[in-house]
Amino acid sequence: xxxxxxxEFIRRLKAFLKPGTKPxxxxxxxxxxxxxxxxVFVGAYIMAISLWFIVNLSGSFNITINIPVEPGNVPENMAxxxxxxxxxQVSVSGDGWQLLNLYNDPPTVVINIEExxxxxxxQVRQRLSYLQEIDVAKVQPLLLSVNMEPKISKRVPVRINTxxxxxxxxxxxxxxxxxxxSITVTGAQSRxxxxxxxxxxxxxxxxxxxxxxxxxxxxxxxxxVVELSENEITxxxxxxEFTEGETTVYIRTRGLPRGQNVNxxxxxxxxxxxxxxxxxxxxxxxxxxxxxxxxxxxxxxxxGFVTPxxxxxxxxxxxxxxxxxxxxxxxxxxxx
Length: 336
Known about the structure:
Shape: elongated
Strand content: over 45%
Number of helices: 7
Helix content: 10-25%
Low-confidence stretches: none
Largest sheet: 7 strands, mixed
Mean pLDDT: 84
Order of helices and strands: HHEEEHEEHEEEEEEHEEEEEEEHEHEEEE
Distance between the termini: 149 Å
């Protein structure tokens, strides 16, 4: 008699009960069956959650929400001295479904500012009166003080703070420009009358600069209720690569009395400076600096040595003084 373990029926039964792919079933079919089970499970889970919400949100709940606030009509010639709060905190109770809709899409409360002190509780309750199954329990703050003053306008210059880092040998050529370079500020008299300039809140930070700069910065209302005529400012600056130039200039004396003469040793100073590459050829044709010693400095000196002053005379060029030698020169006075 054959061993029972060799029986064809027993082997098929073991194969059927063994985890994995069943005999005669393709792997693709098994993957489809597994995905089908996952879909059924997810669908059942979502249905269960939905039924839970339907049952539970039909009851009464208490929640606290933030409701946006904005001022009503302000007289054309008046302005608020302080911003109204952006939100008021409201505690409400009522039907769960209406509270859910209120939480997801709270209505804006337009504040009636005809009076100097406003009862926010009444304003909020009136605004939410269309929700019949919602009760307003608490509003924070309860009272709001509103102050207004005559509205004025003023034109002020704009100031931009910068933090610019250039690549080696690169730098600004000329002064940066703003577009526009001034704005009109409008608001309550006490807020506007002391404003002398408008500082852009964001600092312009750039690194590795080697090209001309053109950047736009947003303008933000920074103090009280202030309206600005512009909402952004453009910063423009020319950038160039610099090279080193050198020139030798004789020392002169300024304020020298008639009949006197001062000689210096050495008689000239060598000046090194940086100049934009595109200006280098023109600067080489001239002496862009003057070297002088004020006669008053000689009268005050007791050492026999003075440090000459360096003045750029070619203002049309963007020159940057690097160094000059010697730092001090000897002098002696010659009487005619």
